[in-house]
TrEMBL record:
CDD domains: LuxR_C_like, REC_NarL-like. It comes from the Bacteria. SMART domains: HTH_LUXR, REC. GO terms for molecular function: DNA binding. Residues 21-139 form the Response regulatory domain. This is DNA-binding response regulator, NarL/FixJ family, contains REC and HTH domains. Pfam families: GerE, Response_reg. Residues 172-237 form the HTH luxR-type domain. It comes from Micromonospora viridifaciens. The lineage of its organism: Bacteria, Bacillati, Actinomycetota, Actinomycetes, Micromonosporales. The modification 4-aspartylphosphate is found at residue 72. GO terms for biological process: phosphorelay signal transduction system; regulation of DNA-templated transcription.
Amino acid sequence: MSGAMESFAPVTAAGIGRPVRVLLADDQHLVRTGFRVILEVEDDIEVVGEAADGERAVAMARAIRPDVVLMDVQMPVLDGLAATSMITAAGGPDGPAVLVLTTFDRDDYLFAALSAGASGFLLKNGTPEDLVEAVRVVARGDGLIAPALTRRVIAAFARPGGPVTGLARRPTAAQPAALTQREYEVLELLARGASNAEIAAALHVGEATVKTHVSRVLAKLDLRDRVQAVIFAYEHGIVQPGG
């Protein structure tokens, strides 16, 4: 997975000049300790709590309001996917971002995590640099997901009866017509799995401009992240499977 995430310079949480506050949720003490050691080396990240089961993770997320929750999938009492759903539902737009981590590269875990509102999905066999970068990305709130992950979702969505159907289905307050022509073009490229760099090259603009357009698309269509933008585009006929 190394190199797949789009890279950013270190950031502080929400741009308010303090470290990103992270809650670790994993039933293995050694794993939590490893994550803590990796993250606390960084000046802009602070581990503020640990939970050994999903129920405790939900309670701690409500109590200490971290910026990011690192969530294991398989945990006792309450599994990580159910805990993710409860945290994202209770937190709303200003609640913690959940980054799901698992040992198992399984599509059912991936789609269930996204359906539960996770902002990212990371395998535990990645590098420490992957973990640190993923925490910074979801803390920023840009909803950025590795292009390879987006393309897996597209491939599944394009299959008849694939598991993505209904993942982010919701009554839509804003129709695609609310977008400018350039924003519509950005949405179409997003739906084809293009990274920010690829969109910038296709439209002959800078990556900073692309980030601005992506943020406006998500805001106007009331979408959480790039994956939901992909699904929105397919559900509304902006792109077609195999197109």
